[in-house]
Design brief:
133 residues; single chain; Nucleotidyltransferase, domain 5; alpha/beta; 24% strand
Length: 133
């Protein structure tokens, strides 16, 4: 099943895909000008890759947990995606992505780190599925 993960941020949306639920590939991030443009860009990606399931990272813990959850759920409601959507904890993925890519990516603003974070979210989901019989 073609599965994607998105890491929704206020400026960028990281995107990763797995076409076979084995290999996870980070793709180019969506740079947000506004949420409607970003939702259209994400919809375009989901259609282009014929995605059947989307994994969405939700930050757990911290002062702004409820606010970020509300914003992420609102953004997802703007999508025209009518397949399965699964929310999972994204705790630490942005930090881990930054650590993994130290010295590899020169800019933070191009969204590459965000897409690596999305890849980590997707890998977590796939690993959890393999653990459950």
């Amino acid at each position: 099943m073609k599965t994607a993960a998105i890491d929704i941020g206020l400026k960028r949306i990281g995107i990763a895909v797995s076409l076979d639920e084995k290999i996870v590939i980070p793709l180019n991030a969506v740079l947000r000008k506004n949420r409607n443009q970003a939702a259209k860009d994400v919809d375009r990606f989901l259609k282009e890759y014929s995605i059947r399931k989307v994994i969405v990272g939700i930050p757990k813990g911290g002062k702004s947990e409820e606010e970020m959850k509300r914003r992420i759920e609102h953004f997802i409601s703007l999508l025209e995606f009518d397949q399965e959507i699964i929310y999972i904890d994204e705790y630490g993925t942005s930090y881990e992505a930054k650590e993994m890519t130290k010295g590899v990516f020169k800019q933070k603003r191009d969204g590459k780190i965000d897409s690596v974070a999305a890849a980590l979210i997707l890998q977590r989901y796939l690993d959890l599925r393999r653990e459950v019989p």
